[in-house]
Amino acid sequence: MPPALSDTIVALSTPSGAGAIAVIRLSGPAAISLTDEVFRGKKLADQPGHTLHYGTIRDAERLLDEVVVSLFRGPHSYTREDVIEISTHGSDYIVRELLALLVRRGARLAEPGEFTKRAFLHGALDLAQAEAVADLIAADSALQHRVALNQMRGGFSRELKDLRQRLIDFAALLELELDFGEEDVEFADRTGLQRLLIEVQTLVQRLLRSFELGNVIKNGVTTVIAGRPNAGKSTLLNALLNEERAIVSAIPGTTRDFIEDEVSLEGIKFRFVDTAGLRETTDTVEAMGVERTRQRVQQAAVVLYLFDLATATPAEVAADVAALPLPAGAHLLLVGNKLDEAPASAVAAMQAAHPALLLLSAANHDGLDALRERLLATVRREGLDAGAATIVTNLRHARSLEVALEALGAVQSGLHHGLGTELVASDLRRALGALGEITGDISTDDLLGSIFTRFCIGK
Ligand code: GDP
User: Which of this chain's residues are annotated to bind K(+) (predicted)?
Assistant: First the structure.
């Protein structure tokens, strides 16, 4: 066992603050004996795993609390080590005292994510699964939860492992050729490799494409509401958020900066950004807002361009939309507001010029359902409802997939141009390395450090 795992770690595993119960978790070789030193009840060392024990915690003769101890014997535990969970009354004071007591007896306070890191080091979880634990804890929408749970249960890992195994088999054949280099033999079937490469590339590409979606699931669909001052952007945002967060005012240009909030529509998070007007301005404060608007629009997945049906002309709308710095792949929704005020002829002319136009009256909450439907449709078109398909949500994984894809491309062109086996094999190893980093088949201390320190303590 590596030296770092010979000690016993302890941490509060529930949120701090007053609560009905708090759970203090220990993991490591001395977890049971250490608890026995402070626990009055049955002798835990004599008890089987997966059992609960009622008793008291004493610091010398001082009674600290009545507790329930859960006993897990490795390898049948979260970390695969001996694990003890002490459920105390949820008081900060008790927790502090108990942690101090256990540390005095020889436990070490756990670092963030250290329990999960141990689970990984002992092979209970691979790296992608361990990361999904953090995602699952952070999930606050139905989709986020589903994707994290699938990843934690190994869905993504299985897909990658299978892919990697097939490449490994092939790499082995190539390496064999290298060993017999002098004799100029070809063990590896080149057309077979080409076919395999295309298959693997297609899969990696699909996973990479899913990251756009994964990002949406994790961080929400950034939806920028753009439009001229007084179009009703703040009113619309308020209506959508159902609360008076944005400043609504009849003076043009008062929404100087952007205001953000999230709304969950059918389990999908939308992050709405209300912006300062996009019109040219001489007011410097407002000009800064306009510049930031441009930046926000560039980050948007959906740009909702809102205008006043009563005052805008079709040509104006067309010109404004053409001037929007719309990022590639972003969806544009054209929305005419103040339907209640606009003359029917103006509305008809606008509809004729812009057939995809959506009509509403933000002030009267009229037409909002159709808008929500349209918003959801933009995301669904991207296959969010793909159901069982694996979705990449982690930036680290996406980066590794990019490296793998690039290396696979190099393998392919190497084969195509009849490059030496050695070069092809080295590119193939690079692709394997990148894929292996995702699940942690290949990992470094730095990588593990950067992943697990982002966890909360006690996890
Ligand atoms: P922004 O500058 O684009 O954020 O516009 P605001 O949301 O501040 O709205 C400007 C004005 O238009 C306010 O007086 C709103 O009450 C009014 N307004 C917004 N939506 C509607 C609507 O659907 N109908 C009517 N009649 N007035 C609206």
Answer: 230, 249, 251, 254
Q: Are residues 231 and 167 in the same domain?
A: no
Q: What per-residue confidence (pLDDT) applies to 273?
A: 80
Nearest CA to ligand 1 atom 13: 250
Q: Exposed (0-12), middle (13-18) or buried (19+): which is 329, by Cβ within 10 Å?
A: exposed
Cα 304 to ligand 1 centroid, rounded to whole Å: 16
| Average pLDDT rounded to a whole number, residues 74-80 | 96
Q: Assess contact for 32 and 14: CB atoms under 8 A.
A: no
User: Comparing C-alpha atoms, which of 308, 337, 216 is closest to residue 265?
Assistant: 216
- Which of 248, 255, 279 is the pocket-test mutation for ligand 1 (most atoms within 8 Å of CB)? 248
Q: Is the Cβ–Cβ distance between 229 and 279 less than 8 Å?
A: yes
User: Does 163 lie in the same domain as 253?
Assistant: no
Per-residue model confidence as pLDDT tens digits over 357-376: 999 999 999 999 999 999 88
Please check whether residues 230 and 303 belong to one and the same domain. Answer: yes
**Residue 276 labeled ligand binder:** yes
Ligand 1 site residues, Cβ closer than 6 angstroms: 227, 229-235, 248-250, 255, 337-338, 340-341, 361-364
Going by alpha carbons, the residue nearest to atom 14 of ligand 1 is 250
Q: Are residues 320 and 400 in the same domain?
A: no
Q: Residues 32-51: pLDDT tens digits?
A: 999 999 999 999 999 999 99
Considering the domain architecture, whether residues 209 and 251 belong to the same structural domain is answered as no
d(CA 224, ligand 1 centre) in Å: 17
Closest by alpha carbon to 425, among 411, 406, 440, 405?
411
Specify the ligand 1 atom closest to the Cα of 337: 23
249 known ligand binder:
yes
Q: Tell how far the Cα of 335 is from the centroid of ligand 1, in angstroms.
A: 13
pLDDT score of 191 more than 50: yes
What domain range includes position 197?
132-215+394-440
75 is in an annotated binding site: no
Q: Flag whether 118 is in a domain.
A: yes
Measure Cα distances from 362 to 40, 136, 331, 450 in Å: 65, 36, 21, 46
Distance CA 94, CA 16 (A): 11
State whether 90 and 158 are in the same domain: no
pTM for the structure as a whole: 0.69
Domain membership of residue 153 (yes or no) is yes
Of the ranges 91-95, 223-227, 282-286, 331-335, which one carries the lowest mean pLDDT score? 282-286
